[in-house]
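Entries read chain and fold; for instance:
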Amino acid sequence: MKLPVYLYGHPVLRAVSEPLTPEYPDLRKLIEDMYACMYESEGVGLAAPQIGRNIRLVVIDASPVADAFPECAGRKLTLINPEIEILDGKPEVRAEGCLSLPGLSENVPRVEHIRLSWLDENFQPQSEEISGFLARIVQHECDHLEGKLYIDHISPIRKQLIRSKLNSIISGKTRVDYPVKYAPKKRK
């Protein structure tokens, strides 16, 4: 099943997601479909709100960026109910993009050393210290579960400078090569 990526302006992206339980219907199929959507969209991560589900589920395959960031080699993670603890370090500023904000990239400050705790696809508890760009990917995707987008981490001036691009996404004028769902039109 081809899942559409919900784009900026859709309210599902701003809602806080609910914890996931083993009783969630067709969870394995959903995870499989999320990976397929992420690969088709050429992303390295996808959170459930980006496909219209406010549940605490993230899929990541950081392998495509391993040439530039070796810590990402072979890193494929399914995160259920993830929790992040910031361990240390001064925030590093790097460019980020998002499937829900096509055509945009902004410099975002994030720490690059975290402890990640989550349940795997079998609901088994996992915990790991993660550093570098992989930590950035995890934080970006987990932000989605809190109703946050990477543009929430940029300055108000910078946000104002990209306002027309954001409005283009909201109004459905942005085109991409993967299935998408635009924000609902406001009634007059």
Q: What stands out?
A: The chain has one domain: 5-181. The CA atoms of residues 48 and 57 lie 5 Å apart.
